[in-house]
Specification:
By secondary structure, the protein is of the alpha/beta class. It is built from ten helices and ten strands. Strand 1 and strand 2 form a beta hairpin. Helix 9 packs parallel to helix 10. The termini are far apart. Bound molecules: phosphoenolpyruvate and manganese (II) ion.
């Protein structure tokens, strides 16, 4: 039986000729095409750590968290100025003011910043303040938005739709590439599965990391914060992701120093700067071990 619209990975060279390894043999079976964001390189030897608040809530909070993640060894800063919230009555982000705060935090710490753009009309504005544009899970198949971020020429962090197959995810990336922009980093962020909400927010699909890397030369990173929704699970998920070959992590951090205790957004999944430091320490020591093994071989 033939089902209309059904595709599998065998169709990828036709669906994604710009991004499939099969149609771009110069990247071979393993080589990643590096993506550069300022001084940060995705797809190199070392996984990149992006960290910061879920949302930009205040200038004080954002600067505090930015300094803390820098102190813990993060490579890049994250933070949402435009937030995709389930209810329109929830905090939606500070918008333009949030972008300006992020820009200031980025300048002060020297960390390049990634932030989400949700609206095709705002791509230019967000691109003025951000070093990398994030397309969120809910917008992975917003094709006009993908075209516009492709045209912006900025590096793009493309999150996997929470119910998207690998083909749909790579098809979305192909829209960006089709505008002449190959500066794309893929981000697995947990998928919908039967037990969601029982003990974790989503299900972290570790298996998709090597699977995506086998099909495309784009770097693949993991967001352990949204994938689990539970702060106590974030460190283990980060380590597991790195062991599965993730080329970076996107992690939500809250300051433990601020009086205004809990963040307004995703508080249950935020980790402390100290836990972030441990995750980065894990990456550093693992890197030494990998380097020694390569040396010994
Ligand atoms: C985020 O990273 O800020 C976010 C909203 O994530 P996602 O789109 O994966 O839900
Ligand atoms: Mn969040």
């Amino acid at each position: 039986m033939h089902i209309a619209g059904k595709v599998d990975v065998n169709d990828l060279p036709r669906l994604c000729p710009l991004l499939s390894r099969k149609t771009n043999p110069r990247y071979g079976d393993r080589q990643t095409r590096g993506v550069q964001v300022g001084r940060v390189s995705f797809g190199g030897e070392r996984p990149v750590v992006i960290a910061g608040p879920c949302a930009v809530e205040t200038r004080e909070q954002t600067l505090e968290v930015a300094r803390a993640v820098k102190g813990s060894g993060a490579d890049m800063l994250r933070g949402g100025a435009f937030k995709p919230r389930t209810s329109p009555h929830d905090f939606q982000g500070l918008g333009l003011e949030g972008l300006k705060i992020l820009h200031e935090a980025s300048r002060e710490t020297g960390l390049p910043v990634v932030t989400e753009v949700m609206d095709v009309r705002l791509v230019e504005q967000v691109a003025e303040y951000a070093d990398m544009l994030q397309v969120g899970s809910r917008n992975m198949q917003n094709y006009p938005l993908l075209v516009e971020v492709g045209r912006s020429g900025k590096p793009v962090l493309l999150k996997r739709g929470m119910a998207a197959s690998l083909c749909e995810w790579l098809g979305a990336a192909e829209y960006i590439a089709n505008e002449g922009n190959l500066e794309i980093v893929l981000c697995e962020r947990g998928i919908k599965a039967y037990p969601n909400g029982e003990y974790a927010r989503y299900s972290l699909d570790l298996n998709v990391i090597p699977a995506a890397q086998a099909e495309t030369f784009l770097p693949v990173i993991v967001d352990p914060s949204h994938a689990t929704g539970v702060s106590d699970m974030v460190e283990g998920a980060s380590r597991a992701a790195v062991e599965f070959g993730a080329q970076g992590l996107l992690i939500e951090v809250a300051s433990d120093r601020l009086d205004a205790a809990r963040p307004r957004c995703d508080a249950a999944q935020a980790i402390s700067p100290r836990t972030l430091r441990r995750i980065i320490h894990f990456i550093d020591t693992r890197q030494e071990y990998v380097a020694e093994r390569v040396h010994a071989a």
